[in-house]
Amino acid sequence: AQKVTQAQTEISVVEKEDVTLDCVYETRDTTYYLFWYKQPPSGELVFLIRRNSFDEQNEISGRYSWNFQKSTSSFNFTITASQVVDSAVYFCALIPTGTASKLTFGTGTRLQVTL
Amino acid sequence: DGGITQSPKYLFRKEGQNVTLSCEQNLNHDAMYWYRQDPGQGLRLIYYSQIVNDFQKGDIAEGYSVSREKKESFPLTVTSAQKNPTAFYLCASSQTGGIGNTIYFGEGSWLTVV
């Protein structure tokens, strides 16, 4: 069985601080995909990134960056110079091979960015 | 605009009633999904459909039913058999049901039992 753990339930930072959201996953499959989604107060889940298990390169997109380390089964997400608009719940999710795109979600991390 | 449309946004149901949540997508995606979200928890899969006229149970299908008569539509019925239906429901779709496809979500529907 697969599992995604987001140990940080809630994080509060002041605007312009950097913040890292942790994600640890478990799967027996050698081929899998990892995702991050953002859920703002409106409720919609917004896709942020998809990473396959064969690609361990870190990725940067503007103020967002992702650190994928298979050795520690982690896929952490960093927001640089956080802004109030980053306030949301962030979910990490996993699709192992053979599960027909059935996402397994972590419980989410609520990020609160204040002025 | 392309996307996934869910309706209604808010729905109140009396105990013992069935209710149907609508989900329509114009992304020409083959696969569609229904997830349930409870406060402080991640999303859990209710049902999914990889192709028209076919669907499979997810992890928490009891008390729910779906149909997939058209590619763009995947309505979810919450039946009276669902013991704790108050939750936030999210519909989603992906290009196909194959591994690795990005799953895109609608804006969700809040269901409250009164």
Architecture overview:
The complex is a heterodimer of chains A (115) and B (114). Chain A is mainly β and 115 residues long. Chain A has no helices and twelve strands. Chain A has strands at residues 3-5, 10-14, 19-21, 24-26, 32-39, 46-52, 59-61, 64-69, 74-79, 88-96, 104-105, 109-114. In chain A, a hairpin with a 2-residue loop joins strand 7 (59-61) and strand 8. The radius of gyration of chain A is 14 Å and the shape is globular. Chain A starts with a strand and ends with a strand. In chain A, 35% of the residues are buried. The model of chain A has no long low-confidence stretch (mean pLDDT 92). Chain B has 114 residues and is mainly beta. Chain B is 0% helix and 49% strand. In chain B, strands 2, 4, 5, 6, 9, 10 and 11 form a seven-stranded mixed beta sheet that branches. In chain B, strands 1-3-8-7 form a four-stranded antiparallel beta sheet, with no helix packed on it. Chain B starts with a strand and ends with a strand. Chain B has strands at 4-7, 10-13, 19-25, 31-37, 43-51, 54-57, 64-66, 76-78, 87-94, 104-105, 109-113.
Describe the structure in brief.
The complex is a heterodimer of chains A (about 120) and B (about 110). Chain A is mainly β and about 120 residues long.
Q: Which features does this protein show?
A:
heterodimer; A: 115 residues; mainly beta; six-stranded mixed β-sheet; four-stranded antiparallel β-sheet; 53% strand; globular; B: 114 residues; seven-stranded mixed β-sheet; 11 strands; 0% helix
Furnish the topology, listing elements before pairings:
The complex is a heterodimer of chains A (115) and B (114).
Chain A: E1 3-5, E2 10-14, E3 19-21, E4 24-26, E5 32-39, E6 46-52, E7 59-61, E8 64-69, E9 74-79, E10 88-96, E11 104-105, E12 109-114
Chain B: E1 4-7, E2 10-13, E3 19-25, E4 31-37, E5 43-51, E6 54-57, E7 64-66, E8 76-78, E9 87-94, E10 104-105, E11 109-113
